[in-house]
Specification:
Blueprint lengths: L3 E7 L4 H10 L3 E3 L2 E2 L8 E2 L4 E6 L15 E5 L1 E2 L2 E2 L6 H9 L7 H7 L7 E4 L8 E8 L2 E8 L2 E8 L3 E3 L5
Antiparallel strand pairs: 1-5, 1-6, 2-5, 3-4, 7-8, 9-10, 9-13, 10-11, 11-12
Amino acid sequence: MTARWYVATTKPGLEKVASENLRRQSFDEFLPIARLRPGESPRIVFRNYIFVAFDVDRDPWRSVNGTRGVQKLMPLLCERPLPLPYGCVEYLQERTSTGKFYDKDLDELAARFAAGDSVVMTSGLLAGHQAAVEWHRGDVVKLKTLVFGREVDVTLKADQLSRVPTHD
């Protein structure tokens, strides 16, 4: 098996201490630090959390919980931590590699949609389905749509949507 990424909670304000001590133990760790808004100073993106990579079958992962600054690995299932979905941390690493976590273009794209707007999903399993915008944050848009006669929530990227033309 190969190393996978996991998430651990840190003790309040000790994210950098946890990062340093995990590295000393030869764990790959990732503490996202970036500007969250234009003009802001870089800061920790997810306070009280750190990402740690290890092979659960090969590496001494239980020592992560005893690392100075770390509170615990989470979540646990049958005494073993659950890995994050593939690509999750790599996406965060890519987004923070420039030192900024915001993306003005994506914000502008999402701003095209307001609560109550009718949209059509342009990709994915529900491509072609119409939905109503609930809210948007950054490039993420939450929608309500009908699937098999039941109202369901769907969350998509703004670039996967097209506004339904209004006929005045």
